[in-house]
Design brief:
By secondary structure, this protein is α/β, with parallel strands linked by helices. The protein has eight helices and seven strands. The chain has a single domain, classed as Rossmann fold (3-Layer(aba) Sandwich), CATH 3.40.50.
Length: 270
């Protein structure tokens, strides 16, 4: 066991495996105590025991199904009330590769509940608490398919587009209040996500990144002050150009008359 001086507590959702478990490990090694949230209690216990023995961090497990309202409410209350929490990693999520003609709409609705509703409610719970505590960090895990929308299931892609847009808004609302927001866009990552999504072969694809590499890159991005981190994007300036073009385009939407290409004879406003 190593000596340990806490930087506060990090709450990580989806922490029983994959990216979430790696986040838990890396944050403990950076000096955080942990609250680990996931459905699978036995897996959480295994992760917690290993991290405690290797790092000396205090690790609390909090088994919860974030698609269940009562379970979600308990995590929200924890984020509001536990003054030691200084970092939230909204990692829990599920995906799909099925088209609209193949997917089960009930499972898709569960995806929306976890990927959007739970992430939103946890953020809304902790953001005011961080402001009152004088600071904190929220890391929201999106995906490159939030931009490359045609790659996987459309609702999954849309849920990650939501996380990206939500992050921009949070950065605008909270930047001057001492709360940091980082939006992370992993590409294909070698985790059980692909087993659940229905395409296990992706885990061994030549374009698939290890969870360790993805999280290590993301944490360095956080250290460097990135608002949006894309571990697999080698040309970092490409994102800056994309963002500049998006913001410039947004200035051109507000007009009282339809564009000439529609051939509409504009009428005066009432």
């Amino acid at each position: 066991m190593t000596s340990h001086t806490s930087k506060g507590t990090a709450l990580v959702t989806g922490a029983s495996s994959g990216i979430g478990a790696v986040y838990a490990d890396r944050l403990a090694r950076r000096g955080y105590d942990l609250i680990l949230v996931a459905r699978n209690e036995e897996r959480l216990k295994t992760v917690a025991r290993r991290i405690e023995s290797e790092t000396g961090s205090k690790v609390q497990i909090f088994p919860a199904d974030l698609t269940d309202k009562s379970s979600l409410a308990k995590v929200e209350a924890l984020l509001r009330d536990d003054k030691s929490i200084s970092l939230l990693v909204n990692n829990a999520g599920i995906g799909s590769v099925a088209s609209i003609l193949q997917a089960d709409v009930d499972k898709i609705t569960d995806m929306i509940t976890l990927n959007i509703t739970a992430l939103t409610r946890l953020t809304y719970a902790v953001a005011p608490a961080f402001v009152s505590r004088g600071g904190g960090t929220i890391v929201n895990i999106a995906s490159v398919v939030g931009i490359a929308a045609e790659m996987l299931n459309g609702v999954y892609s849309a849920s990650k587009s939501y996380v990206i847009s939500f992050g921009h808004s949070l950065q605008k609302d909270l930047a001057d209040k001492g709360v940091r927001i980082q939006t992370v866009l992993p590409g294909a990552t070698a985790t059980e996500f692909w087993d659940v999504a229905g395409y296990a072969a992706q885990k061994t694809s030549a374009i698939t990144m290890s969870a360790d590499d993805a999280v290590d890159a993301t944490l360095i991005g956080l250290d460097n002050g990135e608002l949006v981190t894309i571990p697999g994007l080698h040309d970092g300036d490409a994102w800056d150009r994309w963002e500049t073009d998006r913001r410039e385009l947004s200035k051109k939407f507000s007009n009282s008359k339809p564009a000439l290409r529609y051939g509409v004879k504009a009428t005066a406003a009432a």
